[in-house]
Amino acid sequence: MAVLGVDIGGTKIAAGRVNARAEVEGFRSIPTLASRGFEVSLGQIWRAVESSLTPQVQAIGICAPGPLDVKTGVVLNPPNLPGWHNVPLAKFAKDKFGLPVVIENDCNAAGLAEALHGAGRGYSHVFYAAIGTGIGSGIVLDGKIFHGAHGAGAEAGHMCIDYRSSILCGCGTAGCIEALASGRVFDDAADEDLDELAGRLGAWLGAVISLLDPGIIVLGGGVAQMGEPLFGRLRAAAPRWTVNPYSREIPIVPAQFGAESGVIGAAAVVIGAQ
Ligand SMILES: [Zn+2]
């Protein structure tokens, strides 16, 4: 069985067929053309799907930027998809292609991909975060995505780590880890910048560890590509900010999947739902 995974981003839409071993075939990536509005970007999504669709495909998994409602399959009003308001994307895709369709938040899907097939394989409780121009996160507990009571949970990028901070986050509050430690702040990290970045992320991950007691922490996105200079510092910093007595045993590792993570994750959501 093959599942078509589709990853809708603000700049690119990726699609590919994913088999049960999480191998991707027919991977394609095309521009979203988001600034041209809803009709154009929706047309690009259909183009991406059609470019990878074959008769072997039995279902479609789509991940998109939040907020969205996974139960109803409706994309609400993502800031990086202008003109999208309450779009029943799962129904549109089901009607157009005649296949079962599920949708999921992009970071939740990427987290599931890492938990089931990537750097978090073998762990039932995985905390995943993509640290780039923003910070998105996904929480996998007992092998399933955690959504919260209203479907709005797992937004770890908007945990405040400094309530005195005057640095405003895109969400409107101040002191979020996204505002203090995303790629906007640390584009070209010198040693002292890395120390500061690891200090901030370490305090945040310590809080995450206290709350979730994850089996492993997997970090993707641009900042995570900084490799051992950052990860070594994070492993030293995070245990200083948590009461969890097992914190030093919790691996903090780079993500395994890059550009294909959303496609693999969207497909994993479909397979997990069956
Ligand atoms: Zn925020």
How does this model look, in words?
This protein starts with a strand and ends with a helix. With 274 residues, the protein is an alpha/beta fold. The mean pLDDT is 94. Helix 6 links the parallel strand 11 and strand 12. It has helices at residues 38-52, 89-97, 106-117, 177-181, 191-212, 228-237, 261-273; strands spanning 2-8, 12-18, 24-31, 57-64, 68-69, 74-75, 101-105, 126-131, 135-141, 144-145, 216-220, 252-254. The strands form three sheets. It has a five-stranded mixed β-sheet, with helices on both faces. Strands 10-9-8-11-12 form a five-stranded mixed β-sheet, sandwiched between helices. The chain has a two-stranded antiparallel ribbon with strand order 5-6. It folds into two domains: 2-104 and 259-273, ATPase, nucleotide binding domain (Nucleotidyltransferase, domain 5, 2-Layer Sandwich); 119-254, Nucleotidyltransferase, domain 5. Helix 3 (106-117) crosses helix 7 (261-273) and helix 5 packs across helix 6 (228-237). Zinc ion is lined by residues 158, 169, 171, 173, 176, 178.
